[in-house]
Design brief:
Layout: E1 6-11, H1 14-23, E2 27-30, H2 43-52, E3 56-60, H3 72-85, E4 89-92, H4 103-111, E5 117-120, H5 130-137, E6 143-148, H6 155-167, E7 177-180, H7 189-194, E8 199-202, H8 217-228
Parallel strand pairs: 1-2, 1-8, 2-3, 3-4, 4-5, 5-6, 6-7
């Protein structure tokens, strides 16, 4: 039997989390403040969501909009706080002024994660050299996923890059799972699945009534069926 593809859904609170799990999500990305493109949720929000569902939770570590790390000491403090609450999967990604990976910041935060698994998020879509970034991060402990649309503008533009990177799976710097998200639509799935992509990330697509409304279990279920087709 083939391994089921991963469907990850953005959740802001326990209501979102329950609906996403009911619709068939395998994993949640926990964030707050989508007006800033998703920031670190509070320890209390994590605890409420953890108590409400039993699927995997990846918690965003990000203090402000954009891809600069900002206050690294505060990021480390928040990471440790969430670890003490039981968080064991994370999402992060910081770029320096050249657009390359901010290795000191990434290494400092990863050092606080105790080897937990983590995703490098769509900062990869803003770097001038994706291949170099992958190879610079390749040996960091716990890195198992890249969340990417293949391009800053989204999957429509980035599809050729996604397909090319999927074809390199297993090469040095390309061992991590590709988690496709950012302008992802249902009609993108057949080509991505055929290329071997096996992880998909949705946010607005799980909320047909917009970000002011909760996740819709039926919308998630439609994605679950399409991902499994």
């Amino acid at each position: 039997m083939s391994k089921r593809a991963v469907l990850e859904v953005i959740a802001l609170d326990a209501e979102d989390a329950v609906a996403a799990q009911a619709g068939g999500a395998d994993r949640l990305e926990l964030v707050t403040d989508m007006a800033a493109d998703g920031l670190t949720p509070s320890r209390e929000t994590f605890a409420e969501i953890r108590a409400a569902v039993d699927i995997s939770l990846r918690v965003m570590l990000r203090l402000a909009d954009g891809f600069a790390a900002g206050d690294v000491a505060e990021l480390v403090r928040r990471a440790r706080e969430l670890r003490s609450e039981g968080a064991d999967e994370f999402v992060l990604g910081f770029l320096d002024e050249t657009g390359g990976p901010d290795l000191p910041a990434v290494e400092a935060v990863v050092g606080a994660l105790d080897g937990c698994r983590w995703t490098f998020h769509r900062a990869i879509d803003r770097t001038p050299d994706r291949d170099a970034l992958r190879k610079q991060l390749a040996d960091l402990p716990g890195l198992d996923t890249y969340l990417t649309a293949g391009a800053a503008a989204g999957v429509d533009e980035g599809l050729p890059t996604l397909l090319a990177e999927a074809a390199r799976s297993g090469e040095p710097g390309y061992e991590q799972q590709i988690l496709v998200g950012g302008g992802l639509r249902l009609d993108h799935l057949p080509q991505l699945l055929a290329a071997g992509v096996d992880a998909f990330h949705i946010g607005g697509a799980s909320r047909p009534n917009g970000w002011t409304a909760p996740v819709c279990a039926e919308a998630v279920a439609r994605w679950r069926a399409a991902v499994d087709a």
